[in-house]
Amino acid sequence: MEKIRVGFFGFGKTGKVVANEFLSDPLFTLTWVVRRSQVDHQKYASHMLGHEFAAGEIFAATDVNEDFFLARPVDIIVDFSDSTGVRLYKKAAQMGIPIISAISKYEPQDLELLQSYIKLTPVLYSPNITLGINVVMVAAQILQKIAPHADIEIVEEHFKGKTEISGTAQKIASVLNLEPEHVNSIRVGGIVGHHEIIFGMPYQIIRLSHQSINRAAFGQGAIFGAKFLIGKPPGMYTMETIIAEMFRQNIPVY
């Protein structure tokens, strides 16, 4: 079986961990990595991450031109860069290459550009691509329908240096139709990310929680998404919709 060739955008703290997950999975081969700067230009991501084989040649954003994707063909693009990264792979979208975007926050014009690609190719867009948080998010929506009068609060905990409110917590609040004041933030130590949704009802409390203990969880989510996206028709997909469909297919029958 031929390996799935991955083109990767972003090689920061999280990007390196995610790239390493693809390097370690026998189903995939990391063909190239594009990063914003010229740092480590044309070195191999695999060597930098401790592997002996050569994979994931590193290019700068300025290397990406009209011929880049023809000269270095891939089966899927995974983007862990920043809001502007979407501007670099317009040609790839026109070629029908599937795209996974895990950008936590897009500027409006960049999100509009990403959305324009769905007419050309399948796009999986999930700001938090971990499998667990999306399972929790879908479960919370189901529970809210079962217990519509429950009091709901969201608690998000992150590392001390994170100043903004978690984008994932804001997404949870949005899908549950909660006002921002129902999001409670805690900043302490080096927590990677912890989200909890608390349902308060008479005589009982239900807590749905998810904790990322390593950034590799984002890599496993991207791998899950890539396996799903290959071969899908053009359109917009999210981890939520994938998980919701799996819930529907696997509801036990009594």
TrEMBL record:
The keyword Protease does not apply. Its EC number is 1.17.1.8. InterPro entries: DapB_C, DapB_N, DHDPR_bac, NAD(P)-bd_dom_sf. One of its GO terms (biological process) is lysine biosynthetic process via diaminopimelate. GO terms for cellular component: cytosol. It is an enzyme of class 1 (oxidoreductase). PANTHER family: 4-HYDROXY-TETRAHYDRODIPICOLINATE REDUCTASE 1, CHLOROPLASTIC-RELATED (PTHR20836:SF0), DIHYDRODIPICOLINATE REDUCTASE (PTHR20836). Belongs to the DapB family. This is 4-hydroxy-tetrahydrodipicolinate reductase. It comes from Propionispira arboris.
